[in-house]
Design goal:
This protein has 456 residues and is mainly beta. The chain has helices at 3-18, 151-156, 168-171, 441-446; strands spanning 40-41, 46-62, 65-72, 81-84, 88-95, 103-106, 127-133, 139-145, 161-166, 181-189, 210-213, 216-217, 220-223, 228-234, 241-246, 251-256, 259-267, 270-272, 277-282, 294-298, 303-310, 338-344, 348-349, 361-364, 368-376, 381-385, 390-396, 412-415, 420-426, 432-438, 449-455. It binds CU-O-CU linkage and copper (II) ion (CU) (2 copies). Residues 104, 106, 384, 386 line the site of one copper (II) ion.
Length: 456
């Protein structure tokens, strides 16, 4: 379904329900997630606030047409939590849903009891306070629910929001500021009856008939002619996006899950699995100087994700390949410090399904290990680890190599059919219980997840 067909189909659906007139076909303007309002820095480094998970948000279809969704503080995506390295986050989350929830800080490294484990879910009407220090490199993370067996539906209905951490290292690069920096939360949706979003559970397909970017279907954005920074989260529950521009504009990948890469690199396309993030620089002018409209495009689905219109002016485009800071490699793991995880079908890791009360394995604190993630059917599997970031060493089978956006630090890595990915990982923050799981959210809900214990 393309942009125009969608607008017609969605419009027709709404027309029937509302029984009103539907005048013109327009795409919504790309929503800009609000930066946390009322996020107070009480003392210099304390970011204190409140957030409500509720069922009172909306997806924008354009022309004032919308469908009901869930969100944080009434919006999907939720507000941007903008934090500085060295801050302490102090956030009280209220559950205004009709089911239990919990909040996981995907990409942050909190102590395990603040990590949003499903065992720490809280009931409708109750609150939970999360307090922990932010001490990690600048980068884009995100927050989303993690209750047992309900992650897919809650995220799909709109519960997800971005977290931006900044630090001095990043400041020094002078990357595109303000209006030239865009946080894009990707998802997909399917129209249900009336003005509702249809959720079908199940693990058999990508699902979702139309793309969503920041809670809007087929949005448009006006940008300057300056270099643009696109900071993208794949928050879809199952869909892999293959991102690029059409017609083509110069693109470079400068960062990913764990922050800036040690080397910015030109790319044409980026394959992004659920849970992964990418930080791109984009020159909105073609090499020939063309400033016509173009799309952020998904080449897997032939979806226009965002239609960009370049306004005149803007500063002179900066350097597409900034001089990013180095990333120190983790040491070579000691002989025997290895583990293999086979992701089987849509619900098993090494033959077992998740059990809340079971610890699958124990990892010594501070030891570097080599983990092998192997696909055994049911792909794609985006593999995510809580409690530490890892470095991708190799990929065998399938695409057969480490891709440019998989360098540096990652917390989620995509396995396509017949792929095996090996990573170096070290848990050196807090001992305790963490999760390893597939971030295809229906796989996670079905039990493709393990508890493990980092031992002091
Ligand atoms: Cu983004 Cu355990 O998840
Ligand atoms: Cu996570
Ligand atoms: Cu999976």
């Amino acid at each position: 379904m393309n942009r125009r067909r969608f607008v017609q189909t969605a419009g027709a659906g709404i027309l029937t329900v509302a029984g009103g007139l539907w005048a013109c076909q327009g795409s919504p303007t790309l929503p800009i997630p609000e930066t946390r309002v009322g996020f107070k820095r009480l003392r210099r480094r304390e970011a204190r606030g409140a957030l409500t998970a509720g069922m009172d948000a909306a997806i924008e279809l354009g022309d004032d047409r919308r469908i009901e969704a869930w969100g944080y503080d009434g919006s999907t995506p939720g507000p941007v939590l903008r934090l500085r390295r060295g801050d302490t986050l102090d956030l009280t989350v209220r559950n205004a849903l009709s089911q239990e929830t919990t909040v996981h800080w995907h990409g942050l490294l909190p102590p395990p009891e603040m990590d949003g484990h499903p065992a720490d879910s809280f009931a409708p009407g109750s609150t939970r306070r999360y307090v922990f220090p932010i001490d990690q490199r600048a980068g884009l993370s995100w927050y989303h629910p993690h209750p047992h067996r309900r992650v897919a539906e809650q995220v799909y209905r709109g519960l997800a929001g971005p977290i931006l951490i900044t630090d001095g290292q990043e400041d020094a690069l002078g990357l595109p500021p303000g209006a030239d920096e865009h946080v894009l939360i990707l998802g997909d949706g399917e129209l249900g009856a009336g003005s509702s979003l249809r959720y079908r559970s199940g693990t058999s397909s990508d699902r979702g008939g139309f793309p969503l970017v920041n809670g809007a279907a087929y949005p448009e954005a006006r940008i300057s002619g300056s270099l643009q920074r696109l900071r993208i989260v794949n928050a879809a529950r199952a869909r892999v996006f293959e991102l690029g521009t059409r017609p083509e504009r110069p693109l470079a990948v400068i960062g990913n899950d764990g922050g800036l890469l040690d080397r910015a690199q030109r790319v044409d396309r980026v394959t992004l699995g659920p849970g992964e993030r990418v930080d791109l620089l984009m020159d909105p002018r073609s090499p020939a100087g063309d400033t016509g409209p173009f799309d952020l495009w998904c080449f897997r689905t032939s979806w226009s994700l965002v239609a960009f219109n370049v306004l005149g002016g803007g500063r002179k485009p900066g350097d597409l390949l900034p001089d990013t800071p180095p990333v120190a490699p983790l040491p070579e793991p000691a002989p025997g410090a290895e583990r293999t995880f086979r992701f089987e079908g849509h619900s098993r890791i090494n033959g077992t399904r998740f059990r809340m009360d079971q610890t699958a394995f124990r990892v010594p604190f501070g030891r570097t290990e080599r983990w092998h993630f192997r696909s055994s059917g049911g792909t794609p599997h985006p593999i995510h680890v809580h409690g530490a970031h890892f470095q991708v060493e190799s990929r065998r089978g399938g695409r057969g190599r480490v891709l440019p956006w998989e360098r540096g630090w990652k917390d989620t890595v995509l396995l396509l059919n017949r792929e095996e990915v090996s990573v170096r990982i070290r848990f050196d923050r807090y001992p305790g219980r963490y999760l390893l799981h597939c971030h295809r959210l229906e796989h996670e809900d079905e039990g493709m997840m393990l508890n493990f214990e980092v031992e002091a």
